[in-house]
Amino acid sequence: MIELPEATVLAGQINQTVTGKRIKKVTANQSPHKFAWYTGDPAAYHARLVGKTIHAAAASAGEVEIQVDGMRLILGAALRYYDAGEKLPPKHQLLVEIEGGGALVATIQMWGCLFCVGEGEEVGFADYRLGRERPSPLTAAFDRPYFDDLIRESSGSLSAKAFLATEQRIPGLGNGVLQDILWTARIHPKRKMETLSGGETGQLYQAVKTVLQAMVNQGGRDTERDLYGRVGGYRTILSKNTVGTPCPVCGTIIKKEAYLGGSIYFCEGCQK
Ligand SMILES: [Zn+2]
After folding, report:
1. Taking the model in full, what pTM does it have?
2. Mean pLDDT of 29-57
3. How far apart are CA 157 and CA 193, in angstroms?
4. Which of 126, 189, 202, 222 has the most other CB atoms within 10 Å of its CB?
5. 144-266, what's its fold?
């Protein structure tokens, strides 16, 4: 899986690199992965895509959607581009070789999707549909009244982490980007939503908007890699890179804990 800022960066780079080129060969499921989801038989991907032209890519929730002559590739996976002659990784879940050289490679870490659908075909995953029905937090439609409605419609007993990063409530906002959003809002990941003051709700809304945009503007997070294998330029404040180091604001040592099926990072000084 990837998250919204990195999906946005990857989509932009795909547009600069492979858009307009034709697909020579597709290899799907070469290294079977228990949590790699395909639509139908991955062995059919080659026949469905060969000879077709790659058009525009765009981020949608935590996926990169690539238009390909009457088809769509919907990729929620780490994506890399390799130039002609570059050594390809031995393991991958999707390899798209380009006419004239070069290849797009998708690999799944924990879990992720590699859908290939024709026009009018449904993607039969509920999470995928949910993520498309709601506005992206990077758009103007995701405004303060909309955010307040999201809070009202959800249970007040949800923790801040569960509110932000479960049920596709905010498309593409996952457990990675969540950490710096909550730190910026000065809210602990375990805080119950019903205990937030009006001011804190405002801080949380602002943090969702500004932190995600900063991550996009700076080429993704420094814990993730872009299409060319470079780490992103956004320096994470709370992540595996900073755990055990002092908080840049208050100097308290940044902690890591397991919570709700993933790690949380927090500063006990800033996030009460
Ligand atoms: Zn702090």
Report:
1. 0.95
2. 95
3. 6
4. 189
5. Helicase, Ruva Protein; domain 3 (1.10.8)
